[in-house]
Task: inverse folding
């Protein structure tokens, strides 16, 4: 796996200086990595040095080259060891429309790709002939299966199946708040950095197109609109981005809105 020629952080000599998100401002290692460093095997250390830290540095550079912006993003997310509970932050809006019974657990991968011109968000457009959500824009992901260890495993498995994104091309950062869909799914958004060298290979039976949208565009309140739709004879308000050539709306737009709100709350 190749990386762009950013300077790669190396483990600090002596004591690391941690930011409020628990990441060293010098070497970009997390508290867990710093604590376990001496007990890690040589291959584990090499993986951190050759894969994990370069991706973190690329992400930092793409976020206006700012350690403060990188810290803000990390603080906006729920930690990986503490997945957020609850039925979904939007459940009260849909309570009279949800199907009976417990929700179906699902996970999506909200992937951020570091680019020289700024961070990009990876999105897919579903194949038109799909029975559910055909032609709609979304994140890679889907229903959790019994063999999935957790939401992270489900999101990465689905991303591999849909666009051939491999686990070693992803560095998971944390969670957004769970979101419930009108079809009865409780969706856990997993935020991750994707290696910019990744080349998507869409599964034609599921994905018609893979594209990127600047994170800055999606985080700008001026670009998110409320639109009215008629659902079961009732007018509902949903969120939508006016990105050229694509309709980014519904659950996908709501998950991105949740990221924006969490970032605003950490400012």
Result:
């Amino acid at each position: 796996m190749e990386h762009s020629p950013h300077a790669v952080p190396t483990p600090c000599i002596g004591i690391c200086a941690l930011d409020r998100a628990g990441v060293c401002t010098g070497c970009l290692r997390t508290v867990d990595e710093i604590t376990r460093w001496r007990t890690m095997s040589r291959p584990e250390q090499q993986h951190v040095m050759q894969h994990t830290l370069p991706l973190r540095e690329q992400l930092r550079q793409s976020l206006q080259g700012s350690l403060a912006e990188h810290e803000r993003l990390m603080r906006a997310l729920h930690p990986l060891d503490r997945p957020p509970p609850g039925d979904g932050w939007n459940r009260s809006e849909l309570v009279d429309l949800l199907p009976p019974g417990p929700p179906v657990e699902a996970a999506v991968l909200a992937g951020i790709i570091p680019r020289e011109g700024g961070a990009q968000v990876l999105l897919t457009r579903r194949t038109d002939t799909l029975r559910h959500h055909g032609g709609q824009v979304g994140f890679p992901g889907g229903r959790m299966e019994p063999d999935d260890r957790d939401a992270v495993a489900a999101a990465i498995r689905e991303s591999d199946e849909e666009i051939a994104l491999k686990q070693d091309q992803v560095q998971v950062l944390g969670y957004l708040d769970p979101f419930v869909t009108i079809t009865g799914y409780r969706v856990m958004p997993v935020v991750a950095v994707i290696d910019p060298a990744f080349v998507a290979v869409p599964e034609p039976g599921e994905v018609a197109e893979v594209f990127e949208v600047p994170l800055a565009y999606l985080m700008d309140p001026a670009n998110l609109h409320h639109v009215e739709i008629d659902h079961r004879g009732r007018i509902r308000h949903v969120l939508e981005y006016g990105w050229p050539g694509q309709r980014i709306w519904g659950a996908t737009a709501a998950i991105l809105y949740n990221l924006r709100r969490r970032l605003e709350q950490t400012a």
